[in-house]
Amino acid sequence: MWGAIGLVIVIVVVIVVVSQTSSKTTKGVHYTPKPVSATVLHDLTSVPTSTYNTVGTGIAGAIDAPTVESAQKTLMIDGKPAVFGLFGEFCPYCAAERWAIITSLARFGTFTGLKTMQSSPVDVFPRTQTFTFNTAKYTSPYITARLLELYGQDNATGVHSVINTPTKQEVDLIKKFDSGSSSTSSGTIPFSDWGNKVVFSGASYSPDPLQTLSRTTIAAGLKDPSNAVTKLIIGASNYMSAAVCYIDGGKPGSVCSSSGVQAAAKALKIKV
Questions:
Q1: Which of 54, 163, 215, 217 is deepest in the core (most CB within 10 A)?
Q2: Neighbours of 2 (CB within 10 A)
Q3: What total number of domains does the chain contain?
């Protein structure tokens, strides 16, 4: 995997206790989220199908494919196949991953309430431009998405606090499917579970190419399949779209039958 923030998860009812490493005291680390502009939101959620199809699975070696789980009962929330994701506003790897998650899920439903965010200025890949799911809502006729910002931003001492609490069901999913990145960690962020069938533990690609780029520039580039950053975001997004098609019975057909999604499904050895 390209990177992740390691978690040590201890369950007491539904409380998650997380090990953290404080950074040196730094002023001005707090970022004020703002509503996503209409232009960025359009570019983010209306990526041309031709871009998805041209990019396919992206740049070989630059994107980590997810894990396909076998013999698992489909995760259901509110009567629909579900996606559960775990993130932190401070986290640079989450910052990169959100771009792919939003572009993918926008093919199956609608986001409202998305706000801007940037990763911590005192972590690796500082100030990676992104979004927060903390105020966002997602609706879809096909799936349910529960996208949880477990952690907030770094405060003035470089420490990030827990801002949302997973349910017991979600904690169980983390313990079962979030494989972690080392022997000292029982989990990672970003983490996303697509119906208990396809699992992403850690970032799908490095945040490094997003460094110094504005949110507007990244979003505007999503229409260009030759753009190097677009190849990362949309390559990962096709894997995620294939995961949705895998759990929702191949709907809608216009997305699930597209060549970009089919290329990702073939790479994962799943049928959608």
A1: 215
A2: 17
A3: 1
